[in-house]
């Protein structure tokens, strides 16, 4: 029995070792490939890429698709991409950084996040690399001094950035055909907006004989637009009588909060928006013609889906509305596009700079418009779309890879670019109008970017959760009013030692205001 | 076999005897190595990281070189009103779970056990197991849709059948915990029956025969034969459940909560996620996690003691 047992044990032990051995081999193999690759191709970098889940399955993944291959071939730099879920960038980046796996190029719209990485020593200054390795970007940044404050952290250049293609951002869209049908004029004030919304709710503008119209469809821009109407964007700082003040503690914010409450209690917005986590219901309301007003962005109201489902629709971007405090324009984006910082452990900064230069010179063009002959043809130097469906499927996700670009969106360009497809022409026409509307009125922004005050950055996440909750409560509860809401927000702010943060922000403002323009 | 070995070498000291056993059964002990390795690598070595709860962890310095902070983070969390709210929510939701979700699989298993037609029983079992395999992301979406005040089936039934005004369950601070509890039952009760059914299968059929001869009805048989038969299983599962009382699964809460009910739905796991991963306060959130673990351990030991005092075996 003993020998039998021993034999069995040895056999099984062999099995265990075999399994373990396989595991080791695989790991070594992978390492070997990795090292040999970097020996043969010293021009290699790793970079982050926002994952918006928009790469079609047939096209591959964010790590590998026709465009990643194309970039590797064309730029001469082998880039390994790390996808970062767009709406979870903070946690994904934090985990990658804390575990030492952060990519060499860290790209984000969130200057605060990058600012924290800079102060934690994750990133390195890049003045020297630009000087030594770059030609195109070096020239570009000299021609665009307005980018300087955004790429500078603690007095040194830490980030790469190019200009945005447009500074238009938020937009209120309205169905002109519905206005015409009910004999209404486009609203010019917030009160008129409420009246029009009520008429849409009750007047059966879609003419289906059923009282099933929700006046206003939302998106993630809804809160911003409501607050911006009153120049009091939630959580942002304003200068009131020379004092740095949070938006909540201005009289204007109370009005914004009251407007939210009115729109909700009157049933002018979807009563169930709170559980509509990715705004799917709102999109459905809009596209199926159950809503006549959309609070969204300049390029998200008109779409092929919308016009295909609502062939008779006429869409107009609504010019900025007035309130008792005056007229505020739509949000104007910061001048810079994505910010990219260099990881301290970057192996080959030369490759990174070479990639940036290539992207700025050539790469961005095809990543925006596709391939000549396949996706576009040049007419008067404008890349005219050949097939908008094909472009959407094969190219639209590629624009995400442009860490820098030289694209400028103007109404004329958009319209010229639209192909022969009448729907595409309508879409581009409307987006062009929205850009014009967005540029028409000044947007109040007292601080060009969030004050770089650690005490504020540390608590802003916790604080936001509190005021989100309070704002939602006031919106949905008719018995509560804006006074109550603001008092609650004030008490939460004080719990976070708000007064001393205010003093620090004030100090930061005094030191930096000379740089604001 | 054991007694033979012991009889053969009576004079050996305890330590030597251990060595002797190790050497004699060395091949058998080798089998244990992979499992031991698993626990060492994946369960024990990460415990070392808990040390950052007592440090001011800075990413670039790493765990060792970050400066010590003593009990700073624990003091911070004990004086933080947010933490106590989160702690209270966690405990409350778990008490509901203990009261309503824990007995659910027992009742289900008792009912399944009485089903005599095997094909039907398997069919029902499979239906019951199904939600266990669906992720909370999907279940969350289903629950929101089912409970929608305008289009959800629950409100339609309430309105058409009973004339009750539609209720927006998901944003109501009073209803949300109920939704949470019911969704837990829906998701886990079916799967939970497996252990109980296995325990019931080991009950000697003669006991039922004897009960029937004595004229016991079905209910009496359940009460006097089946339930005592699975008593030990219930006790052990109860102790294990207590070990999780400070822990509400992240996925379930995260996918069911919304801004309107943060006040009752924010729990330790979502709090740690927010503070640790999103706000990058690594040391503080580790302190929260450690605190939670210690409370859970104390509770589990207490219940284990009580169960033993009641005459059950307990965990050890």
Automatic annotation (TrEMBL), chain A:
<dbReference type="InterPro" id="IPR006059">
    <property type="entry name" value="SBP"/>
</dbReference>
<dbReference type="Pfam" id="PF01547">
    <property type="entry name" value="SBP_bac_1"/>
</dbReference>
<protein>
    <submittedName>
        <fullName>Extracellular solute-binding protein</fullName>
    </submittedName>
</protein>
<dbReference type="InterPro" id="IPR050490">
    <property type="entry name" value="Bact_solute-bd_prot1"/>
</dbReference>
TrEMBL record, chain B:
<dbReference type="GO" id="GO:0005886">
    <property type="term" value="C:plasma membrane"/>
</dbReference>
<dbReference type="Pfam" id="PF00528">
    <property type="entry name" value="BPD_transp_1"/>
</dbReference>
<keyword id="KW-0813">Transport</keyword>
<feature type="transmembrane region" description="Helical">
    <location>
        <begin position="91"/>
        <end position="112"/>
    </location>
</feature>
<feature type="transmembrane region" description="Helical">
    <location>
        <begin position="282"/>
        <end position="303"/>
    </location>
</feature>
<feature type="transmembrane region" description="Helical">
    <location>
        <begin position="174"/>
        <end position="201"/>
    </location>
</feature>
<dbReference type="InterPro" id="IPR035906">
    <property type="entry name" value="MetI-like_sf"/>
</dbReference>
<keyword id="KW-0812">Transmembrane</keyword>
<comment type="similarity">
    <text>Belongs to the binding-protein-dependent transport system permease family.</text>
</comment>
<dbReference type="GO" id="GO:0055085">
    <property type="term" value="P:transmembrane transport"/>
</dbReference>
<feature type="transmembrane region" description="Helical">
    <location>
        <begin position="27"/>
        <end position="45"/>
    </location>
</feature>
<dbReference type="InterPro" id="IPR000515">
    <property type="entry name" value="MetI-like"/>
</dbReference>
<dbReference type="InterPro" id="IPR050809">
    <property type="entry name" value="UgpAE/MalFG_permease"/>
</dbReference>
<keyword id="KW-1003">Cell membrane</keyword>
<keyword id="KW-1133">Transmembrane helix</keyword>
<protein>
    <submittedName>
        <fullName>Sugar ABC transporter permease</fullName>
    </submittedName>
</protein>
<feature type="domain" description="ABC transmembrane type-1">
    <location>
        <begin position="87"/>
        <end position="303"/>
    </location>
</feature>
<keyword id="KW-0472">Membrane</keyword>
<feature type="transmembrane region" description="Helical">
    <location>
        <begin position="133"/>
        <end position="154"/>
    </location>
</feature>
<feature type="transmembrane region" description="Helical">
    <location>
        <begin position="222"/>
        <end position="240"/>
    </location>
</feature>
